[in-house]
Amino acid sequence: MRSGQLAAAAGVNLQTLRYYERRGLLPEPARTLGGHRTYPEDAVTRLRVIKVAQRLGFTLTEIADLLAVSSHRGMHSHAGLQAQAATKLAAIEARIADLTEIANTLREAITYGCNDLTHCADYPNCPIPFD
User: Are 9 and 42 in contact (CB under 8 A)?
Assistant: First the structure.
């Protein structure tokens, strides 16, 4: 399949396709005699895997590591994903805790009537942590 067909089938644009190739997320495609890239059918699945992993919060570097583990151990190995998913989940849960604390502080600031950060900093009961 040609580049445009692959991009359309996977729901990405051509620039994304080329970028993933440069990053090594997609193997170098075969070329026709005319120099056009041709991709195997499984490239669609690989692109979809990359997009799903991004939506789950993995960086492209982390995705490259996951794909490398998968290609070295075979399609049925989950050790790389298990370890990285656990690490990613812990980071996301920590971020959620931070965001929850920020949201609660903002709610308290709204309830308290904070309108000016400098003015609020002078009041000991202000919910915004200035220390």
Answer: no
Distance CA(4)–CA(15), nearest Å, equals 10
**Which tokens belong to 32?**
């026709």
**Which residue spans within the chain are E strands per DSSP?**
30-31, 37-38
Give the burial class of 8: count Cβ atoms within 10 A of its Cβ; 0-12 exposed, 13-18 middle, 19 or more buried: middle
Q: Return d(Cα 66, Cα 77) in angstroms, integer.
A: 10
User: What one-letter code names the amino acid at 117?
Assistant: L
pTM of the predicted model, to two decimals? 0.72
Rounded alpha-carbon distances, angstroms, from residue 22 to 29, 48, 105, 128: 11, 17, 43, 46
Residue 10 exposed, middle or buried by CB count within 10 Å (0-12, 13-18, 19+)? buried
At 71-96, the pLDDT tens digits run 655 545 555 788 889 999 999 999 99
